[in-house]
Amino acid sequence: MKKFKLLRLKMYDQDVTQEDIAQHIANVLNNTCSISHVSDLFNGRSSWRMDEAYAVLELLKVPHSELHKYFPKDGERSCYVQI
User: Fold this and answer.
1) Mean pLDDT, all residues of the chain
2) Which InterPro entries match (predicted)?
3) CA 32, 34, 36 angle in degrees (round to 5)?
4) Low-confidence ranges of the chain (pLDDT < 70)
5) Residue 33 contacts by C-beta under 8 Å, 6 or more apart in sequence?
6) What is the pTM of this model?
7) 35 near 43, Cβ under 8 Å?
């Protein structure tokens, strides 16, 4: 099962790639962010930092109050959430 399904769906809907996310995180946080790091985040090999998660929400124009929907614990949801 893929992790961060709702996030992936939102990205697909807006035609946003993991490369776009890496570039946005690097720009917003004034640091480097590689595509491989973003891939590790999506596959659960690394944990999202809060500043990275908020940067992604901003890129996708998702309210910060919905952080828990897009970044659930361990990247998976135990039940479906209506969006």
Assistant:
1) 91
2) Lambda_DNA-bd_dom_sf
3) 155
4) 1, 77-83
5) 22, 23, 25, 26, 52
6) 0.87
7) no
Q: Which of 51, 44, 45 is nearest to 67 (CA)?
A: 51
2, 35, 55, 56, 69 from 77: Cα distances, Å: 11, 24, 21, 19, 8
For the chain, the C-alpha Rg in angstroms (whole number) is 12
pLDDT of residue 73: 85
Asked whether 55 and 38 are in contact (CB, 8 A), the reply is no
Are the CB atoms for 18 and 39 separated by under 8 Å?
Answer: yes
Two structure tokens written together for 66: 């919905």
